[in-house]
Amino acid sequence: MYASAFVLGFHGCDKSVGEEILAGESHLTPSAKDYDWLGHGIYFWENSPERAKQWAEFLAGNPSRSGNRITTPFVLGAIIDLGNCLDLTEASSLGFVRRGYDEMKATFDAIGLAMPQNEPGAKGDADLLKRKLDCAVINYVHNMREDATDLKPFDSVRGAFLEGQPLYEGARIMAKTHIQPCIRHHASIRGYFRPISP
Question: What is the pTM of this model?
Answer without folding.
Answer: 0.90
